[in-house]
Predict the structure.
Amino acid sequence: MKPSLPQGTRDFSHEVVYKRQYILQTIRQIFERYGFQPLETPAMENIDTLMGKYGEEGDKLIFKILNNGLDNPNKEQKTREALEEVFQGKWSKQLTERALRYDLTIPFARFVAMNHGSLVFPFKRYQIQPVWRADRPQRGRYREFYQCDCDVVGSSSLINEVELIHIYDQAFTSLQIPVSIQINNRKILAGLAEICGGQEQLTDITIAIDKLDKIGLEKVKEELTQRGLDQAQIEVIEQYLNIKGSNNEQLTQIEQLLSESKQAMLGVTELRYLLDFAKDSVKSVQLDFTLARGLNYYTGTIFEIKASTVKMGSIGGGGRYDDLTGLFGVKDVPGVGISFGIDRIYDVMEELNLFEGKLSQGTEVLFFNLGSYEIQGAYPVIQKLRQAGIRTELYHEPVKFDKQFKFAEKKGIPYIAIIGSEEITDNKITIKHLPSGWQEQMDSTNIDHIVQALHTQREDK
Amino acid sequence: MKPSLPQGTRDFSHEVVYKRQYILQTIRQIFERYGFQPLETPAMENIDTLMGKYGEEGDKLIFKILNNGLDNPNKEQKTREALEEVFQGKWSKQLTERALRYDLTIPFARFVAMNHGSLVFPFKRYQIQPVWRADRPQRGRYREFYQCDCDVVGSSSLINEVELIHIYDQAFTSLQIPVSIQINNRKILAGLAEICGGQEQLTDITIAIDKLDKIGLEKVKEELTQRGLDQAQIEVIEQYLNIKGSNNEQLTQIEQLLSESKQAMLGVTELRYLLDFAKDSVKSVQLDFTLARGLNYYTGTIFEIKASTVKMGSIGGGGRYDDLTGLFGVKDVPGVGISFGIDRIYDVMEELNLFEGKLSQGTEVLFFNLGSYEIQGAYPVIQKLRQAGIRTELYHEPVKFDKQFKFAEKKGIPYIAIIGSEEITDNKITIKHLPSGWQEQMDSTNIDHIVQALHTQREDK
């Protein structure tokens, strides 16, 4: 049997694990410096927790887990009936009581709802875990991928948005990825809809605006016509989409265009506060009134991150929402959150060569195996080096040096160490740096000196 | 709707996450110092990869994922037929093509089989990921739990066993858990079977011996009788189980008892080599001929770890196997591996209070919110402290001090910081340590001094 991986899933070998850990560790540390604390939830949730939360299309993409014990004869008839329901596009607990999490937001909401009595609010959590979606796999889209979210819930204060903007800024600065932090406010989009045909047009307008990047202004106007907006309304929307200039210039223009809408003006006030606050500390915040963030549950500030120098979709996004836990019976939990698109950030860093020189987690020194007696003499030195933090391997069998050299080269191990029978008697060790050819015999009892030699920068031949 | 967690699964809040990370980080670092490198495989595997690998009982406990797209009318008839197969205790790819991994060994074998052309052997990997089993949940047994494995494959050298013994020793030394590393060799058990009725009795003898701890010698003898062993044979097994004394004394006795079996003598030679090697460096290695490690695929050295001062099952185990990847069509890949039982290690550390003083990952200082103007003055100081590595929060709204003090107390934040309008003018900051009552006004531009104050050990009131 020739084994294979399920479509849309990946093995991560150590090179990839180290790069991903570097990204996640950088972000994790920043979250913690801002007072966010980690949460981990199980991979599987009760099916009722997940179904109906992501729209009809989402329900189909949730991986459902087959119940165990279906070979119990007493259950056969009911299970047959359950299957008929599945054919109708429904799910049935007779067949599947559990499913794999589809994102980190609903499990977080479920956690807050279950524990709201004992949590201290505002509650700041971050969560970095895989999620699963039965999407058609394609380049850059996987069926198992990590999400990396942080949210503050239980507070409507705009200071939370300020903090999240600074988290984005510091994370991408630390990763050395040049980005633009794009910002808008759903209240302004709502205000635009209010002025162009009323609140019930908000969805139509948002869907059309969301496509601007891909299809261009003319097509957006066509779509708006099809969606029943009239010439005068489309004209306002065109003016809206044509707002350009510095952040301040844009704010002035929007205030003129949407002055009739109280909602929009509230959105402008919020944006002005954030932009003022960030103006000295975060250079890359860019107002973008065309930013809509699809059809989700956001109600205030929305964010999106674009890499400045690499063509790639958004590498992060988020926003404010009014009601995290209402669906689970707990009211009045507003919040704001952001997420980092780990797979895309990885791709951007590869393209910009940003991992170079940052990862040095492979084995540092290979001890040659000269035989059973020599190993026993070398082993205490090996152990002391490991205790001093040096990643050290011992070749597994006493074969020709040639083969041992090749092993070191193939694994990219820079140093080799030799302790033969004479060296044991004299307390000596020979260390050689393969890329440069440097080598030296030294005192095997002076561990500090060996460590120092292993940490010396050397030029390749 | 009142939300709940699936049976046998857990949320990990930040206190637990930090403790678990401490354990995993300690072990991970030691793996890497011994030249092991991380591997991550997907949560789901093709169902053919998993089924038939864990015995009939195991097959039932594998969580299978329902195929998506079952509402496609063209598939209905076939899916109905598939369900009838499920009722017969078989699985059907028409219904389920994927399943959640049940352990880390089979996915590792699948990875090695798929990539053996490009891997450098001996290949040393570690893997720390959750696995899922549809076991009946009970105290200490979960349906989602982490495994933590390291294996060397492609080498039959005993030096690998030496390294694994030292990894165990260093890991538990670092975690400060007193343990006994119990060791045996399957060749000795095979030799015992050889002498007592032939190789075909190995399974019967192993099963019976494995129960010694739980049921005692008399019951083991009864079971052996039931399993068809005669008086003479049982007498040999009793002598075997009664071997006591120091490691060396035990080796001498086994050499006398099983001298007729070449296999057993090879096992003794291997054990003697390991015990000799470890005698100066690892004090806690204990020969235990009653150790059997159940009915698995081990063929040479076997290990098991017991906490010395806490009553708990084994907190680690492993051994040598002949053939990792044969099931996947790749021959001649012997190996040896060990695993750490993370959940039990966690429980032992809680019981021995070993986490105390080791985790300090909560927020260190809370800045009080005195209003919009004051926040803007304080924010640059907050940002500089974060850059200096201090975990810093800003209270989200300008409410009474009382409420802000309470927040700090509830969250266990030791320091609070106050920058009011006067302090802004004078470049001052007031820092107060809540547990001791210590407080001081200092220069807000001297970040080093503030950091030093925050890092000072202070006595509680």
Chain A has two domains: 14-36+121-351, 365-460. Chain A has a mean pLDDT of 93.
